[in-house]
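re the bet — no i am not wrong, look at it urself. input seq straight from the record:
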Amino acid sequence: MTQKILSQISSIDNLRGPAGRLEAVLNSGRPDALYSVLLCHPHPKGGGTMHNKVVYHAMKAFTSLGLPVLRFNFRGVGLSEGTFDNGKGEQDDARAALDWLERNFELPVLSAGFSFGSFVSLRAFCGDPRVKALLALGLPVHAEGRSYTYAFLSQCLQPKLFVSGDHDQYGPMEKVQQAFISAANPKHLAWVEGADHFFQGTPESPTPKLAQMQKEITQWLSQQFSIHD
């Protein structure tokens, strides 16, 4: 994907959650942007941070549409204070980041996350009227001994986009399909062919699939919200 809109990046020093300061960066958007974006990273125990490759490429997709994007490290990650809380405290961190976006931009928010970050953001923002859409990249079901369930999505009425690789080792197609079917409308599920959990290739299709993931994001936003570059 070619980024047509220049995006400046700045460190955020005044984002605090219940456990203390949260390290964060903001990619600027167009002055006339109609939405801001909150982006959550994958599991800290697997090395996940706001600089994860999938998170970075998702950010590029959003900024290519002129949207400001806030990325942050969950508690205990990087320079963020606190300690890992198995997804519970991380939901509070995400809510604190949402509050920061609302105060500083006064725009409706699009929430997105990758892997563990997708679970956290779905759980934290399902039903929050400030969040107008939920995007789940690499939805995890079973990962490194951890299991995730999604019965709560039946009560989640915001528009939802799910993007997963068809060879995702942590979110097999059948299990992701079950979670998708249980989710309330409106919703859309996009499979990236030949992609694993990290949107890298498979032995049969070895090239990275991050560009296809980006394309699914921008196409859906164009169709659902008429957001164009």
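see?? Residues 192 and 212 are 7 Å apart (CA to CA). told u. also The chain has a mean pLDDT of 96. so pay up
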